Amino acid sequence: MKLLQFSTLLMCVMVLIFGVSYLATAQNYTFDSADPLADPTEPALNRDDSGETWITKWLALDGQVTNNGGFAVSGPIDWLDEGTSGAVTQESISTVDGLLAAKDVTLTLPDNGGGLNWGIFDIDPADGNNMSTMYGLGDESNFDTYAIIVIGSSNNRDAVIAAAHDDFAQIWVNGDKVYNNSVWTGAAQQVDYDIPISLNKGANVLLYRCGESGGSDYYNLRFADGGGGLSILPETDNVDDFWRGVTTAVEPGGKLPTIWGDIKRQNR
């Protein structure tokens, strides 16, 4: 009996050690908050994630931020701030309150895409030009794309996301920048860094910005760890569903999995 108890205890310890060690090795990227535009210093993974599940439906600007001068010039510019005279920023829209406040605000950039609003778009993770083809365009150059998902979690948790991008990627979660990398990953589903993030119980906003100069243009994202049981908006092609889901989720008593389940049922 004692031997059985010891064996069970040993197995539990080994599982715990393996889980912690996996999470530690998976999180091979540390964001430099002192220099938000610094590229990673850790060695790139060069990992092919083409067999994994990627996020394909996004809330995104309904057009490209064009004539950006190339990603190196564009990267430090907050185009949301520029186009709204400070009413919306990259940091603010990556929070629930800021996202809802931006719902009816038009991004006005006369020389860089005109008047831009938000819509629902699908991307193909295998498409090496999905930042252009999502708009029905060919292989475009010198532009930026902004895309958003809202992640519903039933508890506070740590998770790991993996991003593939061409070229310059910047990611914010709940108002904090978590990733900056001006170097393209090499293929549409190739991951160079696993990025640790913290999710709150309830709604969490993730903003993904990718800047392009020339050649392939893509952005992809998946959960590498800690993604079990999460709900992700948008779930439908109806932008009103998205806003209704986010609004209801932050109301007292709002429960994200139930809300999103109700939205899906309403659209069957």
Structure overview:
By secondary structure, the chain is of the alpha+beta class. It has 2 domains: 1-28; 49-266, no CATH class. The chain is 26% helix and 31% strand. The chain is built from 8 helices and 15 strands. Strands 2, 3, 6, 7, 9, 10, 13 and 15 form an 8-stranded antiparallel sheet that branches. Strands 12-8-14 form a 3-stranded antiparallel sheet. Strands 1-11 form a two-stranded antiparallel ribbon. Helix 7 runs antiparallel to helix 8. Residues 1-26 and 257-268 have low confidence and may be disordered.
Short description:
The chain has 268 residues and is an alpha+beta fold.
The level of helicity is 25-40%
Report the principal-axis shape.
Answer: globular
The secondary structure category is alpha+beta
Number of domains in the coordinates? 2
Q: What quaternary form is this?
A: single chain
Order of helices and strands: HEEEHHHHEEEHEEEEEEEEEHH
Question: What is the average per-residue confidence, as pLDDT, rounded to a whole number?
Answer: 88
Low-pLDDT segments, ≥5 res? 1-26, 257-268
DSSP, total strands: 15
- Enumerate how many helices there are, as a single number: 8
How much strand content do the residues show? Answer: 25-35%
| Terminal-residue CA separation | 55 Å
Main sheet? Answer: 8 strands, antiparallel
**What is the radius of gyration?**
19 Å
